[in-house]
C-alpha cells in the first residue's frame, strides 16, 4: 500500500500540491491522509497514523515547502508519531525497510535555488533533515520529487509534473508486485 501523508495548511487554496494529489489519489492500494483536515487543532492521533504506516510499503510526504522544510503540522506528526520504541530505539522497528518519497512544491523557481539565487543553495541542501528523519527510522529514501515555481508553472507544465509523480508511484507499485 502507498500511504500519502498530505500536509497543506490551506488545502482549498492549493494549486500545485492539489494537482499532484489529484493525479495520484485514484491509484489502487493508495491511501491519503490529509493532516490539516484530520487534525485542524494539531491533535495528531498517533495510533491511527501508526496503523496507516504499518499498512504501507511506501510513504509519500506530500506538501508545499514552508520556510525550507515541512509545514508545522507535519513536523508535529513527526514528533508524535515517530516515537522511540516504535519508530527507533529498542524495539522501534515498525518502519524498518519501508520506503519514503518526499514530494514537494516550492514557490521559488529553480534559479532561486542556486548559489547566486535568492535562496543561495541548491534545493538538495534543504533535504538532509527530512531525509535523516526517514533514515533514522530505518526507511529507504527515494530521490525526492520537487516541483519548483509552483505559482508560475503553466497548466501543461503542472499536468506534466503531476503525470510524472503518478508514473513514479505506478512504477513503484509494479516493481513491488514483481518482487
Ligand atoms: C509560510 C510560507 C513559507 C514558505 N516558504 C517557502 C520556502 O522556504 N521556499 C519556497 O520556495 N517557497 C516557500 N513558500 C511558497 C510555497 O512553497 C508555495 O506557495 C507552495 O509550494 C505552492 O503550492 P500550492 O499551490 O499547493 O499552495 C512559502 C509559503 C508560505 C505561505
Order of helices and strands: EHEHHEHEHEEH
What is the overall silhouette? globular
Calculate Rg over CA atoms: 16 Å
Helix content: 25-40%
Unreliable spans are: none
Termini separation: 14 Å
Range of strand content: 15-25%
Hetero groups in this structure are: flavin mononucleotide
Structural class: alpha/beta
Broad CATH class: Alpha Beta
According to CATH, the fold-level topology is Rossmann fold
The CATH architecture category equals 3-Layer(aba) Sandwich
**Structure summary, number of beta strands:** 6
Major sheet characteristics: 6 strands, parallel
Query: Counting H and I runs of at least 4 residues, what is the number of helices?
Result: 6
Arithmetic mean pLDDT? 98
CATH superfamily: Flavodoxin domain
Number of domains: 1
Amino acid at each position: 500500500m502507498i500511504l500519502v501523508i498530505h500536509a497543506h495548511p490551506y488545502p482549498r487554496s492549493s494549486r500545485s500540491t492539489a494537482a499532484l494529489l489529484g493525479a495520484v489519489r485514484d491509484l489502487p492500494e493508495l491511501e491519503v491522509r490529509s493532516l490539516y483536515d484530520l487534525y485542524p487543532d494539531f491533535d495528531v492521533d498517533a495510533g491511527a497514523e501508526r496503523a496507516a504506516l504499518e499498512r504501507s510499503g511506501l510513504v509519500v510526504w506530500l506538501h508545499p515547502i514552508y520556510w525550507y522544510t515541512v509545514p508545522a503540522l507535519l513536523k508535529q506528526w513527526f514528533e508524535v508519531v515517530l516515537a522511540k520504541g516504535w519508530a527507533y530505539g529498542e524495539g522501534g522497528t515498525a518502519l524498518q525497510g519501508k520506503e519514503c518519497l518526499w514530494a514537494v512544491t516550492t514557490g521559488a523557481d529553480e534559479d532561486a535555488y542556486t548559489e547566486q539565487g535568492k535562496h543561495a543553495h541548491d534545493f538538495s541542501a534543504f533535504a538532509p533533515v527530512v531525509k535523516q528523519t526517514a533514515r533514522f527510522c530505518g526507511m529507504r529514501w527515494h530521490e525526492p520529487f520537487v516541483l519548483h515555481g509552483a505559482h508560475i508553472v503553466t497548466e501543461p507544465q503542472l499536468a506534466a509534473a503531476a503525470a510524472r509523480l503518478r508514473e513514479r508511484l505506478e512504477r513503484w507499485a509494479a516493481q513491488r508486485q514483481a518482487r
